[in-house]
Amino acid sequence: MQTLFFSDLVPITWSDELASLRSRVTVRGYPLGGTGLSVTEGVISRIESKNYRLGPTSNMLPGTLLVIQIDAAINGGNSGGPAFDASDRVVGVAFQGIDNAQ
Prior knowledge:
- The chain has a single domain, classed as Trypsin-like serine proteases (Thrombin, subunit H), CATH 2.40.10.
- Helices cover 0% and strands 38% of the residues.
- It has no helices and six strands.
- It has a six-stranded mixed β-sheet with strand order 1-6-5-2-3-4, with no helix packed on it.
- The protein is globular.
- It comes from Haptolina ericina.
- GO terms for molecular function: serine-type endopeptidase activity.
- InterPro entries: Peptidase_S1_PA, Peptidase_S1_PA_chymotrypsin.
């Protein structure tokens, strides 16, 4: 019988609660085309509701999006990577950066 490579993996879980300011987060992903896992840590520095449109030429209607800003280092290509709380539950997903930010 063949064993699947993922048979012993545990699925990630989403947090049932909204993260709070200054909560620690860990971001994991494979940015910049790398093959090794990147792990960075930071804190939640802002939580707000924003009007959001995919892009200036997007034909999608604008909507409201809950935005959680963190200070963990996230590089290009990390979009879609999860941000975990201290209990390893997903509290957010990386999707956009700010140019020239540190």
